[in-house]
Specification:
Elements (H helix, E strand, L loop, with lengths): L12 H17 L3
């Protein structure tokens, strides 16, 4: 999974998780 590597480096994990979730949704919508 992408996005897991920098998880500990983020000051606010919740914001990082939300951004990662949105990125996953966006990539999912691009699938045929």
């Amino acid at each position: 999974m992408q996005g897991v590597l920098g998880y500990q480096k983020v000051a606010e994990p919740a914001a990082f998780e939300r951004a990662n979730y949105l990125k996953v949704l966006a990539s999912y919508r691009l699938l045929p």
